[in-house]
Amino acid sequence: MSIEANKALLRRYIADVWDHGNLAALDDYLAADYRRHVSPTAPPLTLDGQKQRLAGFRSAFPDITLILEEAIAEGDRVVFRTTMRGTHEGAFQGIAPTSTRVTVALLDMVRIQDGRIVEQWGGPDLFDLVRQLGATISSPESRERS
């Protein structure tokens, strides 16, 4: 696929899956052997794991949308910067609903092969998201001292 076709695929993916909540469309955008790298120390998510992850975001933030701020492509990769907006109406990472409207930066890179996303790296600024929800992050050591 061309660089422009890869960027167009990314735009459609954001609109269909994130903005319209069409999680069934994931099979149209993500390859069967898709891998989502959320941490260098954790195994990558599979297609089913990514479906569960996005369903969790949609459950916690039912009105979630992504605004594509910038996309840069080269070869089979597209790096993109988005802004996520949504209202915290469901539990998220153990945080009870707060009805807080959040705005969070995301930075991702995808690798596209045969018209589907096969790998993805990056994600939202979860520390900022948790902060906006009024929660704090502590280490096991700090909890033991409390």
H/E element order? HHEHEEEEHH
The chain-level mean pLDDT equals 93
Task: Write down the CATH class.
Answer: Alpha Beta
- What number of domains? 1
- Please give the number of β-strands: 5
Radius of gyration over C-alpha positions, nearest whole angstrom: 16 Å
Share of helix, binned: 25-40%
* CATH architectural category: Roll
**What is the approximate shape?**
globular
Spatial ordering of strands, largest sheet: 1-5-4-3-2
Which residues sit in consecutive blocks of at least 5 with pLDDT less than 50? Answer: none
Percent strand: 25-35%
Distance from first to last alpha carbon: 55 Å
Structural class: alpha+beta
Summed up, the helix count is 5
CATH topology: Nuclear Transport Factor 2, Chain: A
Biggest sheet features = 5 strands, mixed
Topology:
Layout: H1 3-19, H2 26-29, E1 30-37, H3 47-60, E2 65-74, E3 77-87, E4 101-113, E5 116-124, H4 126-132, H5 140-145
Parallel strand pairs: 1-5
Antiparallel strand pairs: 2-3, 3-4, 4-5
Features:
single chain, 146 residues, alpha+beta, Nuclear Transport Factor 2, Chain: A, 5-stranded mixed beta sheet
Structure in words:
With 146 residues, this protein is α+β, with helices and mostly antiparallel strands. The protein has a single domain (3-137), classed as Roll (Nuclear Transport Factor 2, Chain: A). Helices cover 33% and strands 35% of the residues. It contains 5 helices and 5 strands. The protein has a 5-stranded mixed sheet with strand order 1-5-4-3-2. Strand 4 (101-113) and strand 5 form a beta hairpin. The chain is globular. The termini are far apart.
